[in-house]
Write a structure and sequence with these properties.
The chain has 152 residues and is α/β, with parallel strands linked by helices. The chain has 5 helices and 4 strands, in the order βαβαβαβαα. Helix 3 links the parallel strand 3 and strand 4.
Length: 152
Amino acid sequence: MTAKKKRVCVVFPGLSGGSDRGYVKALVKTLMSDGFEVAVFHNRGVCNTPYTSLSFADLSSNEEVQRCLAFVKEKAGHEADLVGIGLSMGANVMTKAAGLYGKDFPLKAICAVNNPFDLWLAINLMRGSAYEKNLAKELRRQLICKDEDQMD
């Protein structure tokens, strides 16, 4: 009898999303019921992730994604199958990382859901909407540095 290979899914939530969001919780619950272990990528400041440097979340940088995937790969073990699901802006972050990594990308498969391919169009379509106001409020609440005494 062969042992079942460990399967791990890395979830990349939307811009202000994290493991505390209903849509992420529902996805994690479904993945776990299908036998996956799950890791959720958090941008700095999201879900009360502490700031430990003066650098704010930068979706144009791939450094935190690289660190996240290296950590998950180390914890899961060399033989584990890693896959990813990106939601909204998290899908853009994940697919950009896949392109930058190339053949060395540690995720065997990825699924991008509802990603804004044209960011300028998405921003302009949101302008003045209730969604934009709510998103701005959420980002202000989460991403303003509150732990100045803990900075390097």
